[in-house]
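Input record (Table S2, row 280):
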Amino acid sequence: EIAFYNDSFVDINAKVVPIQERAHQFGDGIYEVIRVYNGRPFYMDEHLHRLQKSAEAIELQLPYTLNQIENLCLEGLERSTLKEAEIYIQISRGIYTRQHHFPEPSCAVFTMTIKNARVIPENKRVNGMKVLTTEDDRWKNCYIKSLNLLPNVMAKQKAKVNGCDEAVFHDDGIVKEGSSTNVFTVKNGILHTYPALNGILHGITRSIVLKLASETGIEVVEEPFNLDFLYEADEVFITSTSMEVMPVSQVDEIEFSTVRPVTDKLIEQFQALKDDVITG
Ligand code: PLP
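Output record (pyridoxal-5'-phosphate complex):
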């Protein structure tokens, strides 16, 4: 495992972040997480472009070009020697006296860690995850992959203490996304998910799944739906870079069948995409 802070590779445990770094004083920055299978980054271009989009949205000038960032990731991967890894990239607005307005001149700081991928227990993929729903108390720009994750942290902790794996945000009854995942339901063979508006993160896994679905002839509806629709779904699953396509077995008090043809099909197709990367 290895890290990078502000122009150099450092030990993963090195203490390198200065007190007045804005990432930890304000959460003033953005991030990305990229999964690596068999030493090969998965959908790296898409992640880097989303990073650029997040940077533009907060008027942050990236300290490196996307090409340079890609090369840093590849160099880091090689130095780490890891095969099943997660690349975490963070860009903060830098180090400055603690004042809210932007530093002048701009001085963004690039941070990266490359660590072993979190292992998702295989029984979760078979049995499914339990989720609870919770009011979405986040800001209106959740399409930005911002470092401000306090509501997500609170929601995930609420899930954990209630014996669940994930919390699903709803805004006045409209189902948005999970605390670190996107949410899908299947009803009568049709796949439903909240549209890619500003109120959710436009997950890379979400867009992969939508593409796989349309290639398979599964009808897709990207329109808001409410909690009752979620409870009455035939199948529910969540997606993310680290969880991939993950079935849901329970939402609040409602249990779901383990017969889930659409979810299983998408898991199978997602695995085929991974296999393409793994075998090069
Ligand atoms: N929604 C939120 C709030 C997230 O934090 C994440 C990822 O961490 C996702 C959705 C899933 O996005 P992706 O598939 O790009 O990992």
